[in-house]
Amino acid sequence: MSASVAGTDPRLAGRQAVTVDVAGLPVELPIVPIKDDFAISLMMVIDMGVRFGEHVGRALAERLKPLSPEIVVGAATLGIPVAIEVSRALGLDRYVVVQKSPKIHLGDALTRTITSITSKGEQRLLLDRAAVPLLAGRRVVVVDDVVATGSSLKGTIDLVRDAGGDVVGVGVILTEAHDWEEKLGADATLVRALGHIPQFRPGTDGWEPIPETL
């Protein structure tokens, strides 16, 4: 995987980007510094367009359908469009969203505390107790855009289990590096992804991928 400057997307003009294969679809992502010596390639799925959403929804549904899921769960905010498109492609109507912002109807929500590579400090995941009957005793697939540290995904899986759901699979558009595998533990085997991205360090000509070891 190589990084380049600029690209066909006008939003990438003058920015270093990396081309990623997402289930057969080449996608250019900007490389965004998190610290002076560390950067990631950023995918904002809500900015990727309708065709991209349809593409990843169908591709993830193909990987998750053999698990016979009964309902899809996604975490706000970037997991919401993924949950919608995967549900649509699976022929399901209802889906459940795990929230990250306190709302008036979530005063007694089931909660988990997480950290994220793209957000500062701790966050809370909140599952509306009204959604518990949709999950209890049902085969559930959890979906998200990118798994990096694994904290958000683990928190979502734990909330589904707190609600009595049976997590039979996890679908993500991209895996990032491999820290998430340790965080998820045995649940890492549930993950089905459409592509993979490294993390980046300063090189002689801009950012370069950090070598990965498995």
Helical percent range?
10-25%
Spatial order of the strands forming the largest sheet:
1-2-3-4-12-13
CATH architecture: 3-Layer(aba) Sandwich
Q: Roughly how many Å apart are the termini?
A: 17 Å
Strand count, sense and closure of the main sheet? Answer: 6 strands, antiparallel
Overall mean pLDDT = 92
CATH class: Alpha Beta
Number of strand elements: 13
Question: According to CATH, what is the topology?
Answer: Rossmann fold
* Global outline: globular
Total number of helices: 5
Domain unit count:
1
Description:
The protein is α/β, with parallel strands linked by helices and 214 residues long. The protein has a single domain, classed as Rossmann fold (3-Layer(aba) Sandwich), CATH 3.40.50.2020. It is built from 5 helices and 13 strands. The chain has helices at residues 50-64, 79-90, 132-135, 151-162, 179-184; strands at residues 3-5, 16-22, 25-35, 38-41, 71-75, 95-98, 110-115, 122-127, 139-147, 166-176, 191-197, 199-203, 206-209. The strands form 3 sheets. It has a 6-stranded antiparallel β-sheet with strand order 1-2-3-4-12-13, with no helix packed on it. A 5-stranded parallel β-sheet has the order 6-5-9-10-11, with helices on both faces. A two-stranded antiparallel ribbon has the order 7-8. Helix 1 crosses helix 2. The longest helix has 15 residues, at 50-64. The protein is globular. The two termini are 17 Å apart.
